[in-house]
Amino acid sequence: MEDTLSSRIKKLIENIETERFNVIEEFWEYVEEQGTPLIENIKGDDNNALVTFLYRGKDINNVMIYGGVPGFRYNENIMKNIENTDVWFRTYKVRNNVKFKYNFSLNYEFDDDYKKIKKNSVVDILNPNKFLFPKDEESPESEESISSLVMMPKVKTELWTEFREYTRKGEVKLYRLHSDILGGGRRIWTYVPYGYKEIKEPCKLLILSDGFEYLSISAATVLDNLINDKKISNVICVLIESIQNRYEELTCSDKYSDFIAKELMPWIYENYNVSKSPQDTIIGGVSLGGLAATYMAYKNSRIFGNVLSQSGSYWYDGQWLTNKFKESERLPIKFYLNAGVLEDNPYDTEPIMMEVINNMRDVLIKKGYEVSYENFPSGHDYLSWGETLGTGLIELIGDKN
Questions:
Q1: What string of DSSP letters covers 40-73?
Q2: Each residue of 196-233: pLDDT tens digit?
Q3: If residue 216 lies in a helix (H) or strand (E), which one and from where to where?
Q4: Angle 383-135-252 (CA atoms, 0-180°, nearest 5)?
Q5: Which residue ranges make up each domain of the chain?
Q6: Cα–Cα distances in Å, from 16 out to 39, 73, 339?
């Protein structure tokens, strides 16, 4: 991705310099009709397009863009103002097949304090497409999140997150499980497939951290569709609340790992018809949850024979967990790893996510592990983690017949 200048902005600047009457109002009328950001083809380049972000405003110091494009290196994402106008703009060359979300932060103070940035952030009112992440009503720390959404022209239609009227639906229940190890209660959601009471064969088992978030990105719909289409056999999914002490619990925590292995798993075995075979048991998560899933399988390979790690945060502690796998003997674990194509550059996250994920992949393959790997067309956010939950499960436990 690189900063450049769109033909539409060039033309506007030329018209302003020639003092053409009413040129600014004509420009904004065009923008309101088209919607933002403006997307322009690049001659001779079918893989990329020019994306121009626009903001209309006076009496402000600056406007900063942040999100999947152009990323989160805040100081480098300041929009430019056409002198003596209310036009703020910034143009980037972007892959033609990605989707991403973004926001504007007004009067940015060149401070990386995310809470302050978020407080002064707004959606792009000229962009009709929005991505809403709901508030968790039971969590005092949770807030509803609204971002502007961009779907580039060649984005593929999602298959597994699409709600289908005709698909037979499983059932999701909420429990409140007490944990002596963690000290207190924890919300647990369980998904069982349609017709569960009539299923005689033990179901496969999927454990996911960040349960509220996974349900919010259609995890139940994904499982319904996969089972309906016979891509996987019957699965029971247990989703764990990960709001309280999330960073502490999901960064290779023995305490959290013991909670799952010694308290949660016996509860599941007692209450659900699931296979106890490691080959039928998947532990998974996104970002820090992907790191935690990998660590829990490393510690408990007799329980978890499959790891589903989506944009796993393997940067933790100088890639400590990657080095653990490098130094240890191969364990009977199968892996699915992924990373977004927008995680491959310094404009996204630091350290570069794709680099540390690819390093883990390479270490595992060199050790002889079976690893499936996918690059998805987005960045480090929930836009694609629902869909790639589906592709990951197919890779790990898919019915190959």
A1: EEETTEEEEEEEEEEEE-SS-S-EEEEETTTBS-
A2: 999 999 999 999 999 999 999 999 999 999 999 999 99
A3: helix 211-216
A4: 65
A5: 2-151, 171-397
A6: 22, 31, 43
Which two structure tokens, joined as six digits, stand for 60? 């402000």
**Residue matched to tokens 């296979």:** 275
Return the CATH superfamily for domain 2-151: Immunoglobulins (2.60.40.10)
- Output the CA angle 390-392-396, nearest 5 degrees: 120
- The stretch 343-350 carries a mean pLDDT of 56
Cβ pair 270, 310 in contact under 8 A: no
Domain 171-397 = CATH 3.40.50.1820: yes
Kindly report the length of the chain. 401
Structure tokens at 195: 């017709």
Question: Residue 45 has which token pair?
Answer: 């380049």
Return d(Cα 149, Cα 123) in angstroms, integer: 9
CA–CA gap between residue 385 and residue 7 (Å, rounded):
35
Question: Is the pTM above the cut of 0.90?
Answer: yes
Mean pLDDT value across residues 174-179? 96
**What is residue 398's DSSP assignment?**
B
The percentage of residues in the chain with a pLDDT greater than 70, rounded to a whole number, is: 97
Q: For residues 132 and 145, is the Cβ–Cβ distance under 8 A?
A: yes
> Do the Cβ atoms of 369 and 337 come closer than 8 Å?
no
Using DSSP, state whether 259 is helix, strand or coil: helix
**HSE (CB half, 13 Å, CA atoms) of 98?**
28
State how far the alpha carbon of 30 is from the alpha carbons of 27, 36, 81, in Å.
5, 10, 18
